[in-house]
Amino acid sequence: MVRHIAVVEDEADLAANCRSALERQGFKVSVFADRPSALTAFRARLPDLAIIDVGLGAEFEGGFELCRELRSLSSSVPIIFLTARDSDFDVVSGLRLGADDYLTKDISQPHMLARVNALFRRIDALTQVSLTHADLLTRGDLCIDLDRMSATWKEQILELTVTELWILQALARHPGHVKSRQQLMDAANVVLDDNTITSHIKRLRKKFQLIDTDFDGIKTAYGMGYRWDA
């Protein structure tokens, strides 16, 4: 299966370079120069992954808005921001909106491709887990369906990104065992930093708390990492 990547970038040269690099890796690539055209295409058919710039033409935060809109269409389509904006505020904002990764445009092409492939490896690894274990991972009120890449808490759907689902199943598979940030990165077969893992954990907790205000199942082991204890 050839995977389809959507690149949303208003700088024509950068978009062309990104397209060429991805196509050399065997991906099918569609390029959009603005938010409206990308959104119209996403509503017709979702890509397998979206790479989005934050600033799109006259829309200073058009990429953030597109991320919100894409997340309303799908909680699981992987999203990477690729942008010149590198402030901590922008990075955190992107992750809070549901992006799986946030890259700056000074990143090398091989590094960018490695992060794209890492996201797809996470999806493949989750699928492989479903083939080698029981499809349903149940821990009390938590049920993770690896075959459908979905999760519920108290029979209500958790709208999780690929990264959030991966972190959750890594923690819930061994309740009470502390997973360090490095172990979560290693398990996901992806390069992230401590702050990114922390942001994903915070977002994951908030999604549980939208269903259950008393949720406290993801514990912090200070100086060590996190554990599932619900």
From TrEMBL:
Pfam families: Response_reg, Trans_reg_C. PROSITE patterns: OMPR_PHOB (PS51755), RESPONSE_REGULATORY (PS50110). The modification 4-aspartylphosphate is found at D53. SMART domains: REC, Trans_reg_C. InterPro entries: CheY-like_superfamily, OmpR/PhoB-type_DNA-bd, Response_regulator, Sig_transdc_resp-reg_C-effctor, Sig_transdc_resp-reg_receiver, WalR-like, WH-like_DNA-bd_sf. Residues 134-230 form the OmpR/PhoB-type domain. Residues 134-230 bind DNA. Residues 4-120 form the Response regulatory domain. The keyword Translocase does not apply. The keyword Transcription applies. Keywords: DNA-binding, Phosphoprotein, Transcription, Transcription regulation, Two-component regulatory system. PANTHER family: DNA-BINDING DUAL MASTER TRANSCRIPTIONAL REGULATOR RPAA, REGULATOR OF RPOS. This is Proteobacterial dedicated sortase system response regulator. The gene is pdsR.
